[in-house]
Amino acid sequence: MSTSGDVPTLTEFQETTKQAFAFLQRFGFAETAAPSHRSHDPFQVWFRAGRRFVIVQGEGYGSMASVKLETADGLELAEIYLVPPEARPDGSKRSRTPVGQLEQIHEAARRLERYGADFLSGDEGRFVELAKLLPPYKRPLGRASD
Predict the structure, then answer these.
(1) What does the pLDDT average to over 124-140?
(2) Are 60 and 98 in contact (CB under 8 A)?
(3) How far is CA 80 from CA 9, 19, 87, in A?
(4) Contact 59/66 with Cβ under 8 angstroms?
(5) Which of 62, 45, 55 lies closest to 98 in space, CA to CA?
(6) Which residue stretches of the chain are H helix?
């Protein structure tokens, strides 16, 4: 497995994501294919439960990862916004050893499991309060919500 300074392979990214987010099964999520209009990037793993999605993406040429929550009606939110501000990672701590992409995936999974149970179990109230509309490039053609 890659260390924090290494760029993960596609296989390492996918295996780490599936392992770190295995807890989603308890909430009825299963891995699913990305929609065709968003499937161009292989460094993404999608999980779905009904109309809710958890999307893990590799970014920054292997240096970063993001986890977004989405609903079928076109709303999205980064998982970090479900974490209370006082429990979010302190940006000043980033001056220590850089955290690699795979560790970022594990950290995001731990945060989502701890702070996102409402969304994961189907209660979208807090999610809807914080979420934004998907940007146009993420929407399927012919589905403008502007």
Answers:
(1) 93
(2) no
(3) 25, 20, 10
(4) yes
(5) 62
(6) 10-20, 101-115, 117-120, 125-130
Q: Which amino acid appears at position 34 of this protein?
A: A
| Rounded CA Rg of the chain | 15
Beta-strand relationship, 52-59 and 132-133: unpaired
CA distance 25 to 143: 30
Tokens of 95: 């001056």
The reply to whether the predicted model has a pTM over 0.90 is no
The closest alpha carbon to 79, from 118, 50, 42, belongs to: 118
Q: Is the pLDDT of residue 12 over 90?
A: yes
Mean pLDDT for the stretch of residues 65-80: 96
Q: What is the pLDDT of residues 43-60, one digit of tens each?
A: 999 999 999 999 999 999
Contact assessment for residue 107 and residue 89, using Cβ atoms and an 8 Å cutoff: yes
